[in-house]
Amino acid sequence: xxxxxxxxxxxxxxxxxxxxxxxxxxxxxxxxxxxxxxxxxxxxxxxxxxxxxxxxxxxxxxxxxxxxxxxxxxxxxxxxxxxxxxxxxxxxxxxxxxxxxxxxxxxxxxxxxxxxxxxxxxxxxxxxxxx
Length: 131
Prior knowledge:
Elements: E1 18-22, E2 26-32, H1 47-62, E3 67-77, E4 86-97, E5 100-109, E6 112-123
């Protein structure tokens, strides 16, 4: 199988989600949660870290240099994530039409689904900040 290189979000901090696989069909990202992600003494991880890793997984799934997220829908946080958990996110392209790409991302922890969401992405010709 031909190795595929990541073309987007090259400066994404792996602390917030590390790319572990990328293929023509999709991508996988691993979020290893740390104490500084906790919101309380019980070690509950803030949902923003879960969402951020899922968003990065969607971007890697599209894997175009100038892909941006324009909408996230049907995002469900199905189970809590705590400090020390390792959540694996899998992205799959559901629809690709010209510049628009719909990606479904599922996050699992020990084979239990903890997150699911639909990410609407747009592929641009240039960087979004250089219009």
